[in-house]
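Quick one, tokens below:
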């Protein structure tokens, strides 16, 4: 069985490792599309060690698209992939497709689902495995699980808790997927969609209520990335907690 994976970061790395080491997928039956970023250094090292073919070409056009089509995948998976996989690739698989999305779809389709869920004061979020179609995040739901969002959660904490839950559920999901034991359901209509980009440009609006400022600071906290910015005159100051922001506003009048 041949599997094509669009992979990125921790999730991509872990899924590939599980497929190779737990599910009998062989290196010569795997093709990985990924991205030339520092997030993928460990992934690339692992792929080289396991002699898995991978590329940083775009799967959407040119030689990358040709490579994907010539591979003849039985399964196409997106594990935090950053490109929309062309319909011509999805339509040619023999066993199916799945994407891993860090929210309870159809809520928070698109990008930055975890920061937006915190910013919107949601009490829970979750994980979704779903089929891929030409319409982003709208294929049939294959599996979902709800996770709580705690009042002290930051984007960093919640992101890694979601990843952990994905991997705890992955082996059981994949076995059911390849054995056609999953009960799928249509993606509900509606929901919400967010494009790639930092909410509100990463800048705190001082007119927001205190609870929204607190949510925004926690939603922006993802070290080593830049956190929420408090702007005082011509000075921008990065803040990590609501208490730090309160102190700064008192000092800056």
């Amino acid at each position: 069985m041949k599997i094509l994976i669009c992979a990125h970061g921790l999730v991509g790395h872990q899924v590939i490792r599980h497929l190779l080491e737990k599910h009998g997928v062989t290196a010569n039956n795997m093709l990985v599309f990924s991205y030339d970023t520092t997030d993928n250094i460990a992934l690339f090292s692992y792929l080289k060690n396991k002699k898995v073919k991978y590329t940083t070409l775009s799967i959407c056009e040119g030689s990358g698209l040709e490579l994907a089509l010539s591979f003849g995948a039985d399964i196409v998976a997106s594990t935090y992939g950053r490109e929309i996989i062309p319909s011509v690739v999805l339509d040619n698989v023999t066993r199916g497709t799945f994407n891993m999305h860090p929210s309870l779809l159809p809520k928070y389709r698109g990008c930055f689902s975890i920061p937006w869920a915190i910013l919107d004061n949601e009490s829970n979020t979750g994980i979704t495995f779903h089929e891929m179609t030409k319409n982003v995040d709208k294929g049939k739901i294959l599996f979902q699980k709800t996770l709580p969002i705690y009042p002290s959660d930051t984007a960093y904490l919640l992101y890694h808790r979601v990843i952990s839950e994905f991997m705890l559920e992955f082996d059981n999901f994949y076995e059911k997927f390849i054995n056609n034991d999953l009960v799928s359901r249509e993606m509900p209509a509606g929901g919400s969609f967010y494009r790639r980009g930092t909410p509100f440009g990463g800048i705190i609006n001082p007119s927001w209520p205190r609870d929204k400022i607190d949510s925004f600071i926690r939603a922006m906290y993802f070290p080593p990335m830049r956190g929420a910015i408090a702007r005082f005159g011509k000075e921008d100051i990065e803040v990590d907690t609501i208490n730090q922001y309160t102190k700064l506003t008192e000092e800056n009048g």
